[in-house]
Write a structure and sequence with these properties.
This protein is of the alpha/beta class and 182 residues long. It has six helices and seven strands, in the order E-H-E-H-E-H-E-H-E-H-E-E-H. The chain has a five-stranded mixed β-barrel. Helix 1 links the parallel strand 1 (2-7) and strand 2 (22-31). The two termini are 21 Å apart.
């Protein structure tokens, strides 16, 4: 099923999304990869606030290539999501609603998705140049010293993703294999 949603993504909206749905996101999402996640985790361990309010937000696991002239961002393909698995449950428990990446997630992340009414969305790997066309603006908002791994605020329009894991425990990576085997 195709759905058009607006970000930030509330829990009310995330609870309507089902594994296998094609989603087109318009609005604000954030990027963060390994180094930014590590810094956020360290900040939380020290009792500090996160550099962004993650409640009802989507984090896209992506580090862009340099922008070409006249474009807000370069190639913007997804990073392998499992690299953030040790940090994701804590962020989900703090209110993160959606994560965008590629590849499978750990059982702990999948449990946290269900527990928090959140979703894991997949962007197509290898299509970074095409995905960048859906990004209308990009602004570094935290950890500028990390370069491409800095946290960015993106304004996106009809950004295409697929719901892989939903809040009911459905996982497209499991159900698609079973369906294909028939």
């Amino acid at each position: 099923m195709d759905k058009h949603i607006t970000a930030p993504i509330t829990k009310e909206v995330s609870r309507t999304l089902r594994a296998g749905d094609y989603i087109y996101i318009t609005g604000t999402i954030y990027t963060a990869r390994d180094a930014a996640h590590k810094r956020m985790d360290e900040a939380l361990a020290k009792g500090e606030s996160l550099p962004i309010d993650i409640v009802d937000q989507a984090i896209y696991y992506m580090g862009p290539s340099p922008a070409r002239e006249g474009r807000p961002i370069g190639s913007a393909g997804p990073t392998t999501a499992s690299r953030m698995d040790r940090y994701a449950p804590k962020l989900l428990d703090l209110g993160l609603t959606a994560m965008i990446g590629k590849g499978k997630r750990s059982p702990e992340v999948l449990d946290a998705i269900v527990r928090n009414g959140s979703v894991y969305l997949a962007a197509v790997g290898g299509a970074g140049a095409l995905l960048s066309k859906c990004i209308k603006s990009s602004e570094v908002v935290a950890y500028d010293d990390l370069g491409t791994e800095a946290i960015r605020k993106l304004e996106v329009e009809n950004f295409p993703v697929i719901v892989v894991a939903d809040c009911e425990g459905n996982n497209l990576y499991e159900t698609a294999i079973k369906e294909y085997q028939r």
